[in-house]
Amino acid sequence: SMKRSYIVYTTIFAVVSGLILCILLVFSKPETLSRIQETFAKIETQSKHQAAVKQVPPKTPSAIPNPEEPLIKNVQQMLYDDSIGSYLVVTEDYRFFEISGTGERINATFQLEEGKLLLSGLDGMTLVDGETVALLTSNQILVTIKRKDGVWSEEKREKVQGTTIRDSFHGLGYDAKKKEFYTINQIRSIGRVELTYFAMKEDKIKIDPDASEKKKRALKKKQKPPYLSIIKREKIEAASGMRSDAKKAFESRFRPIGLAERQGRIYTLDSEALYLYSIDQKEKTITGETASPKVYGSKGIFVQDNELFALVVTDKFSSRSFTPID
Fold first, then answer.
1. Burial state string for 193-204 with b = 16 or more CB within 10 A and e = fewer than 16
2. pTM of the full predicted structure?
3. 3-class DSSP state for residue 11?
């Protein structure tokens, strides 16, 4: 019996020590911790969302009554919001929809109004966080849409400063750590592809601490409020190991549609040349491979559950509107 209790105690000791070591190892890594926090934040957003969806009475029929008559027509941009498990869609007539993850129920919708800054076609759409979305228009206006208690509404509309007539933006992404937006910019006139970054910027006026109060007040009045502006442009080159056919397509007839960010890389699809391109932001290089399946005429690219999807059917929205690509 001495022997048996010795074995039991040693086993318990080993298991406890192992657990402690395991916890220490896992939680000492900052990225693991931030991932765990992210997961909990997502769970919280999702449960809040479920509660909100139950409360908000559907303004539109909640079940799609006649599958032949689509409720959502002419999709302009879409993405999947994993923190609330819903698709977010903007149509050609600037109606915004939040659609359940099954693609069958409209959870919320609202109409983007014609404002002082007119909207002319959308070049991109991205999540800023689980409950904030930004849209980028062809005339370089950034529209921010926010969700509160299950209801989406437009928060603000800002013109991006520092653009030129040659800029042609494709897709929109957001770096939450740096609080920067980015887009693929194809400047055809000089055959240059770049990642163009923009963010809120403030031109601080230097105020001499020894100046008189009156002078300080006058200078403070001159201080312009923060504004949205291009902050950097980074040229993208073909990576050295890029397949020659993909390299040729990239250098001669690159036509990117949208962008999607996955695990730190930026993906874009060329639905005419049928390549799936991947950009390394640190290296400022691009590689490409044949898209599979062949998604001719696709209109967009997005990520859902770490998988890339191409938006292929835009005349009406359903779960058949997109297809996985790799």
1. bbbbbbbeeeee
2. 0.78
3. helix
